[in-house]
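User: For my dataset I need records formatted as: sequence, then structure tokens, nothing else. Please produce one.
Assistant:
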Amino acid sequence: MSDESKQDFSEMLEAAKEAAKKDGVNVCYMKNANMPTGTCAVLINSSERSLVANLAAANTFSVDHLATPEARAIIDAAGIYYVTGFFLTVSVDSILTLAKDACENNKIFSMNLSKSSSRDFQPAGDSVEPAHRRRKPGRGAGRWRLEHRGLRG
């Protein structure tokens, strides 16, 4: 799940959505009429690859989307949840909602932490928090704190 715009590259994204469905992948985008659809450039050299993304509308993803009937049906039917690292900077509440659901329903929850922005998050006791929270005051206003307490079944 992600967020898309109703403008720019949204037609291409809809075509990709249909192709994904043909391959058995459930796609459920949250629409955002006020932001352009994100784009991604992929550079491939031999067996190496690099991605550069403009998240655009994906940066506006909201946990409220997970409560929509279409999204809820996909969540209920899933046995494995995979969350990409960018959600740490976009919607921690969405991560926690899926993690809690996975714990309560004996499902697999996995998360990719290789995104470059995830390097700004470091373990801190029972939580993962931005590294700059432990810096001296005035050096950044951390606003995300991912608590895993209370998620164990």
